[in-house]
Amino acid sequence: MNPDYLRYWPLDPEVIQLNHGSYGACPWPVLRAQDEWRARMERNSTRFMGVELEPALEHARGRLGELVGANSDDLAFIPNATTGVNTVLRSIEPTLQPGDEILTTDHDYNACTNAMRATASRSGVVVVVARVPFPPRNGDEVRDAILAAATTRTKLAVINHITSPTALVWPIDQIVAGLAERGIDTLVDGAHAPGMVPLDIDALGAAYYTGNCHKWLCGPKGSGFLHVRRDHQAGIHPLVTSHGANSPRRDRSPFRLEFDWLGTSDPTAYLSIPAALDFMAGLVDGGWPEVMRRNRELVLIGRRKVLESIHLGEDWSVRDEMIGSMATIELPTELDPRPIDLPADSDDLATHLVDPLHDALIDDHRIEVPVFAWPHTPADGPPRRLLRISAELYNSADDYDLLAAALGGS
Description:
By secondary structure, the chain is α/β, with parallel strands linked by helices. It has helices at residues 3-6, 20-23, 28-43, 45-68, 81-92, 110-123, 139-149, 172-181, 201-204, 254-260, 268-271, 273-282, 287-309, 349-352, 356-365, 397-408, and strands spanning 16-17, 75-78, 101-105, 126-130, 154-160, 185-190, 208-212, 224-228, 326-330, 367-368, 371-374, 384-390. The radius of gyration is 21 Å and the shape is globular. Mean pLDDT is 93; it is low at 348-352.
């Protein structure tokens, strides 16, 4: 780990943390900022909730909008990107008819796939899964596989900007444009994108875009956002119906009024986003562009070390332009071939699988890195064993040397 930066995070110094991508990690200064917001709220909750909260949320949305390239009035704070996907699906569900299709891919995040299945079970729509090769030859192959699966019955496409299991940065602008040409709205699951890659959501033009602030922005847990294009906002409602649904106010849009007040909760994760943006940008000369560049450069170094340790050539690797701050590698079947305890009747590998290699790496080497089966279900094909590394400023090249040595000796 890099001691110059590790001191800013409350991470266990005895563990090599190579899994920033799953849950992020919030630095001490941002946690302290959240504590200050929470103390301010508790000093006079009535005044805070009734008077101070609205302008504070406005400020936080504005700062976030600057980074992600979005008008702040089109942003709504939500706990996480999974909530964003569920919000859109639930909102459009009354407009769907049996036989309509929702398009996704076999690289989709399992929780969001489950949300689409739930919508299908209630409405009679069909979830169509586009098969995208892994590793793909290039972004064009990804785009073409998705567009080939679209039909005249496709009403919505739920597409990752950066995939979770396979850690691919997809050509989302080409995908969104290609689907729009066919009259298909896209819900972009950008869970990993904010803070990993440059964003211009307004220019992208997707109907819906949802992202997390607790991952690569290093904000507190429970901070995410949903962007809804202005012409679609009338049809999108929060999962919780509250006072905004019949508010008489005319100084704010119904979208704002519905999403900004969902009942009494702790909004301090949202209000701490500006602190996260400022802190991370101030860690290195060059601000956020340099943070993104360093993390990407480091994960490319780590990927090369791991590939060499398990004797996989660069011809296997994902092309560099499809890598952000994470990289996923398929492990050889002979690597740590201990049996995996998977129930015979299981239809969901992502839920049930605990890979013994993951446990060995944390127990024997103090390395936290995800090892999992993909695709998620047997219907999507035979499972492949994947390892996904992440890079954040608190990491160093030595971390991947230790991982490479552990894999090479297993």
